[in-house]
C-alpha cells in the first residue's frame, strides 16, 4: 500500500518529461539562430564611405540616441556642520534614520534615532536641549547605540537634524 505522502508527490510535481524541451519546438528557433543576420545597407541618398573614413569613436548623426536611465529623486543632502563630535548617517534611500515605535499595546510611544556615530552622550544632551526636554528623559541604549526619545517626535527630531546639516 502506498503512503499518502507518496501519492501527494506523484500528483504535486509534474513529470520531468513534460519539462524537457521538445525537438520539434526547438527546430524553428535553431534554424533562425543558424542564419547570419542580413548585412547593413547604407541609406539610399548618402555616398558610401570607406571604413577608414568612419571611426568608431565618432558617433554618426544617423544613430538614434538612447534615453538616459531613470534616476531616483533624492533629497538635497547638506554637509553637516564642522566640529560636531557626532555624525548621523543616512539610510540607503537618503532618509534620516528616525523611527516612531509604539509599545505596550500602543500606550507607550517612542521615537528612535539610529546610525549615530561618535559621542552619543553629547548628541543626547544637544537633542534634549533642541527639543526642550530634560536630558534624563532621552535614553541611550548602549548595546544598540540608539537614542530613544519619549513620544512621537519624528518631525521635530528630523527638523532638528536637518538644521544641524545632516
From TrEMBL:
It comes from the Eukaryota. It is found in: Mitochondrion. Residues 35-46 have a biased composition (Pro residues). GO terms for molecular function: structural constituent of ribosome. GO terms for cellular component: mitochondrial large ribosomal subunit. Keywords: Mitochondrion, Ribonucleoprotein, Ribosomal protein. Residues 22-85 are annotated as: Disordered. InterPro entries: Ribosomal_mL49. It holds the Pfam family Img2. Residues 22-34, 47-64 have a biased composition (Low complexity). One of its GO terms (biological process) is translation. Gene3D superfamilies: SUI1-like domain (3.30.780.10). Belongs to the mitochondrion-specific ribosomal protein mL49 family. This is Large ribosomal subunit protein mL49. It comes from Staphylotrichum tortipilum.
